[in-house]
């Protein structure tokens, strides 16, 4: 990276040590709003069939993803999904999350929620999700719950044969210049909305990419994407008049009468402050932003509805990446992309294997001596939160064990920046069986595995017998 893009790098390094970002709680106690705006049929199998979806062993072979549904049923897809969005997450759920004492949610989103980004000749997704996001964020803000917007399902598909990728396919095309570019436009729009739309006022962080492929040799260009992601967020903030440490805002933005006019001048205003790709992203985002604010009814005129005043009171969003140790084979370190507040996310799923032997003793020994936070911190990936976890195991777990398993994980993740459970809810139906027992936070609360106060434990000493005293001393 040419130093020309970082005029005050030395200053940045000094001024940002220890800064987490005012918007995020100092310890996160949260849940994911999974299967709301990125629907994974396995979490609501009966509703999916009722909607008109299908069930199959290999999800690429039937209607088992949003893409397959929209492709097969173009005439009803928007209406059917709208019904899902209104019922899967509504005021009742916000009230439950609030009553559970949680302070944050992570909201998985698809690129298609920014509708002009979808190439409708080859890509199929429902429309209208952005209005539901605006509705849900307003309800969360009213409840005082902080939001992490998570780019979960990326343009071109970022993970093979996964419902969470939006389309089940082995044709993974995200790690290409064209799709990185689209993801950056998405980032520019979400950053803008987070700052200018009052409904988005509780958005504190944006996560760049959920669970990229672990083998870094299969994610070429991801390191450059990380740097461009942070620059896009900070460039938009400068454009909006939000203070970015180490950068002086170009004067032209201060005289713009509205947000879209500011975007139209980015090419000349930013000069060489940011990479050419970042400047191109802002240019290409301009007409898309125009469409999206029209769809949402968001005010863009600085002199109206106290927009200037509200922007002056906003602080930088916290840029968020999966931690460097999520990948292997010489991954790029997202810490190298940092400008302003940044946090890191790790997901630990023992149920998928490869973490610990499949028994109680091994699980508790592993989690009670978790080295991930220290290993990440050694690579400047700090603060670290655990953005997805749950109670599923590779063996038949007793109720007694699940209580210990919940306590031990909460103790481990609480030593970092906190945690967000996967998921806030799971369908309860004959077809879903007892899936909710280990995957649903609300069900875990009801059964007493989780505590009514998320900062508490059933047994705060659960780890004592398992801690390696050699390490702990
Ligand atoms: C939320 O949706 C559920 C159906 O899943 C419904 O029973 C409930 O009444 C809805 N709550 C509100 C406040 O609309
Ligand atoms: C934004 O400002 C530009 C330039 O002054 C103007 O042409 C445009 O109509 C304005 N848009 C809105 C929505 O006010
Ligand atoms: C405890 O940790 C030390 C140092 O890593 C290791 O050598 C030892 O085998 C561990 N003991 C147990 C009981 O896990």
UniProtKB/TrEMBL annotation:
Residues 82-425 form the Glycoside hydrolase family domain. Transmembrane segments: none annotated. Residues 1-22 form the signal peptide. GO terms for cellular component: cell surface; extracellular region. The keyword Signal applies. The keyword Hydrolase applies. One of its GO terms (molecular function) is beta-glucosidase activity. InterPro entries: GH, Glyco_hydro_5, Glycosyl_hydrolase_5. One of its GO terms (biological process) is glucan catabolic process. Keywords: Glycosidase, Hydrolase, Signal. It comes from the Eukaryota. PANTHER family: GLUCAN ENDO-1,6-BETA-GLUCOSIDASE B (PTHR31297), GLYCOSIDE HYDROLASE FAMILY 5 DOMAIN-CONTAINING PROTEIN (PTHR31297:SF42). Belongs to the glycosyl hydrolase 5 (cellulase A) family. This is Glycoside hydrolase family 5 protein.
